[in-house]
Amino acid sequence: MKVLSVIGMLGAGKSTAILAALEEIARRGGRAGAVINDSGEVQPETDTIMERFPIRSIGGG
Fold it and tell me: What is d(CA 29, CA 31) in angstroms, rounded to the nearest whole number?
């Protein structure tokens, strides 16, 4: 199993990079998952990824 950590400042393009990687892996017939640490009532990163891929939320962090 390969694990990749994506970190950076707000607005740096992390979600865009994760989404592009997930799409490329799916296009090649592979399987991938993402663990997203999104806090607050509004969760823009989770919403962005969820538009294209199934998300399962794990609470209690």
Answer: 7
pLDDT in tens, 12-46: 888 888 889 989 999 999 988 887 776 667 677 77
Tell me the C-alpha to C-alpha distance, in Å, between residue 53 and each of 4, 9, 25, 57, 60: 18, 24, 12, 13, 22
Q: What is the pTM of this model?
A: 0.71
Ranges of each domain in the chain: 1-61
CA gap 4, 17 in Å, rounded? 12
CA distance 1 to 29: 16
Quote the distance between the C-alpha of residue 49 and its chain's center: 5
